[in-house]
Amino acid sequence: MSILGKTQTYRELKRKIYLVLIPLYILALFSFRLFSTHITPFYEFIIPFLVLILIINWIFTFRDQFFRAIEIAMLLVLSVHHLLEVWKFIYMYDTTISTYMIWAPLFYMFVFISFQGKGLLWTIIIFLTTIVMGLINFSFVITQITLIHFYLASFIVIYVLNNFRKLILFYIDSNMLKRLAYYDPLTNIANRRLIQSWLEEEVKSSHSTGRALAVIFLDVDHFKKINDQHGHGVGDEVLQQLTEIVKNAIGAKELFGRMGGEEFIIITGIL
């Protein structure tokens, strides 16, 4: 798969995530507005504003328009909301940050999903900003232990998300390296190196179990002539179509690979 193809796939995955998470976020805001016994003027303003912005973002995400601009807009809106929640708790002597703590990890998750490596820098900036806000007015905070727990929980979430991102990247890189080492990039089937490994294993298994083993070699007649007359692009298509034909014809237990050029091999047991 090309780099462009992988980028588009990741973009589509993010889009699907947003299409689910944005309505859940809106639902959470609505439920807070409907079931809270006391709504401050702060929430009277911020909740309708957030809901409106999120609905607009969801519509554009659903229509797949201005995708990157929508991501940046959501980042800015959610970042401001995050900072306002902390500011309200610290400077308005509110105790409702415990409710927002449930949703704070979602903010950090969004940042990491949207901006990957750069997401760490942004979350650190936001996190340090909240710490500075707390230090300035810490002695006046009503429930200082809640604020401390909020900081600790935020740090843990950022740390875990960043390392989880590294783990995923390592897993992807290792799989890509393995695929490059053992699979033919044109046909996406086993290459000579993997075939040789298969042969060694199958021969050992055949000797130990007494099971008969068959090795079938295939090649394309006059393949050089195809390349010379029609070009290498057509030659590649011939190899790809041949690969699909053979894959559909053999059983699930047969091993199929490309030795190189127009030469293929099938390893199969004989019952």
UniProtKB/TrEMBL annotation:
- Tell me any Pfam family this protein matches: GGDEF
Q: Transmembrane stretches, by residue range?
A: 17-36, 42-60, 72-91, 97-115, 120-142, 148-172
- Domain of life the protein comes from: Bacteria
Does this entry carry the keyword Transmembrane?
yes
Q: Is Cytoplasm among the key words of this record?
A: no
Give residue ranges for domain GGDEF: 211-271
Its keywords, alphabetically, are:
Membrane, Transmembrane, Transmembrane helix
Protein name per its UniProtKB record? GGDEF domain-containing protein
